[in-house]
Amino acid sequence: MKERRKDLLWEMALILLTVTACLYSTGVGNIFGAKVDWSSQHSVFPEYFRQQFYRTGQFFPEFALNIGGGQNIYNFSYYGLFSPVVLIGYLLPNVKMSDYMMVASIVCLAAAVIILYRWLKSREFTAAVSGMTALMFLFAGPMIYQSSHQIMFVNYMPFLCLTFLGIDRYFEQKKSGLLIGGTFLMIMTSFYFSIGGILALGLYGIYRYARTKERAEEMITVKGFLGDGLRFARRILTAIMLAGVLLVPTAMALLGRSGSKGEKTDIWQLLTPQINLEKFLYGAYGPGLSCLMLIILLTGLFYKKAYEKILSGGADSSVFFVSAQWCTLYQTEVADPVFAASVLSYGKISGEAEKSENSENLDASSMSGNYYIYLSEEG
């Protein structure tokens, strides 16, 4: 009962701090989200989707007659065409979409922080460690900043954190509903950034697999790893296939586009990283990759067990790949909080506080990983 009261106090404090930080970042006399593309795109397009639904009754529209002289509506699916966050707004016809998106952005941010806190508590961390880690996650550069600027950069985070819980349930209880559902909702909310999210989920899945085998005192064999890995991947693939109602027509729309010189977009252009070191460093939208890599390499030196080294090496390669991928897609620096999730999942947060001999090292890597996130300021 005492522990539950402590959790409730932490959660109330985190929610209060989230709302306060959002209002403080807005400034006196300003409206949350009324900067950059937020007010001109991230609330305008969802309102158009809603009105299109009211007018036609079609939940799966094909054509946007009133945009750019008429276009394939899946050219704009990035703006939350089937996002559960946006779809809830369809149930509130008397609420302005701009007001709804303002509140929804803050709620998504608070939800991500609370789910992260509960995930850490489920891994048997103390309330203090879980709360302080969630607090640093909240104050990571991209989180509050992008919640009022480019909301698709961060509004999938509640579902990503929820899926980490789903992975735990999958390995502990052999239940896959939360894993599949969380992954599906993450993709539908922000399919661009779900690529990095799925990479983080795979990394955490490998960790949990190795940790489960160690507890059971079972040897990891190539055959066993491949078999169990395919069964885990099948759950992720199921979520991707369920999201095909969005992904397939969106991919067709993207591949049907012409570039600035009239050439067609090639599938390999979307999937092949184009490395530009300038975009990996600090900047207004940069991930601060040099700092992240240094943290991962240094904390990896303290790891002694195989599953810990897997996460350390996996985080190095996955963060580098995702960075290159987003530089390719956007040709700009993108402060993707998936880097935060990768650090959180790779070492410690995913780690065991359960009185293991390495718990102090793991706690240290968790805090340093989150400190990186805090340092990755928006500029």
Briefly summarize what is shown.
The protein has 379 residues and is an all-alpha fold. It has helices at residues 2-26, 38-42, 44-56, 84-87, 97-122, 127-138, 141-147, 157-173, 177-189, 191-215, 222-242, 244-255, 267-271, 289-300, 306-330, 338-346, 359-375; strands spanning 63-64, 71-72.
Description:
- This protein is an all-alpha fold and 379 residues long.
- The protein folds into 3 domains: 154 residues, no CATH class; 101 residues; 114 residues, no CATH class.
- Helix content is 65%, strand content 1%.
- It contains 17 helices and 2 strands.
- Strands 1-2 form a two-stranded antiparallel ribbon.
- Helix 1 runs antiparallel to helix 5, helix 8 packs antiparallel against helix 9 and helix 14 runs antiparallel to helix 15.
- The protein is globular, with a radius of gyration of 21 Å.
- The termini are far apart.
- The C terminus is likely disordered.
